[in-house]
Amino acid sequence: MRISKDQIQDYNKKNKAEHASQFDFLSQVISAKGHDVNAILQKLQNFQVAIPSWALGAGGTRFGRFGFQGEPASLEQKIDDVGILHALTQTAGAISLHIPWDIPTDYTAINQLAASHDIVFDAVNSNTFQDQKNAAESYKYGSLSSTNKAAREQAIAHNIEVIKIGDKLGSKSLTVWLADGANFPGQTNFQTALQHTQDSLIEIYKTLPNDWKLFIEYKPYEPNFYSTVIQDWGTSFMLANSCGDKAYTLVDLGHHLPNTNIEQIVATLMLKGKLGGFHFNDSKYGDDDVTVGSIKPYALFLIFNALVYGMENNPQNPYPAWMIDASHNIKDPLEDLIQSLEAIQEAYAKALLVDQKSLTEAQLNNDVVQCQEILQDAYRTDVRPLIAQARLTSGGVLHPISAYRSMHIRKNLINERGANSVASGL
Fold this sequence. Notes:
three-stranded parallel beta sheet, 16 helices, 9% strand, globular
């Protein structure tokens, strides 16, 4: 299924007048505060978030999964779904593949299909947290950190193969997340596990093309509950430094213990030039992977405030790669991803409205109250007309969820694919 430009224009015609009034009012408000509306709009238009191929079907937990009708049953259908998201939002201009869930059979055809949707391939993701069919070695006791040299070599070879697959698609980065760790005290030697992991990552790093990056993800727990080899940003940062200049830390919002100050982590990594990418989601307890901004929107804004500052003041840090990593469980996956894209754009737009000059002055004067006032003035601004205008200018729809439902997209997908199609991944 594809959304035509005529469908988008027809939808927007019905909503343009009301939008124009709201946007004009907001423009006057933020212009009076010294902001360049056009410059902000351009930044919002340029901001693209990768959609993970594994999140286009229903999510689930280790206790079960409730399927959603009309799921994409092939890589081609997943790309088509991202095409729908991008047509509506003009913000989902990339797809991130997880290997071996999504290995193309015809690279030329897959590249052409993605290009037809104006989509590029973002980071490719390896999978050594599951045993693969017919694999010679098991990852039950670890992959890159395993005491079994053959298992380590198998995991290294898999990552190298993922790089080769990504290179054929035009991807420029590899994301490594390890489930390696221990469930019980004494199960592993912490130093040996870390050394094996470092040595393995260095071997993978050596095979990176010159224009590629290696993103090293971290997580404090799960699926192992006593220890995780790469448990925090500091360990990831250390491993990235051990690998080289093309290796970076990747921050997943759900991969932190409760109440972790993620914006401080972001600021530190950007200062050191080592923040490579972001996985967006939200959580109540741990790695819940629920809709971005659905639980802690102010925390998301504060993180973006640190990101905006870093992007403007830390030239030593590359422009970060943005991706959603979510598990929808009981929502329509496409509606959930639209809501996440909207929340990300809102947090970014509000962070762009922070008066950084005044904030710096208040910080230097230790005016704590004024610091809070400056941040919350930006946060309390309703930026939705600004985001809608950015979409409109780029060729998207003013209100994506409303348009998605009025165009009966899920019903059309069910008619095309059937009610019982199942997506690979989460």
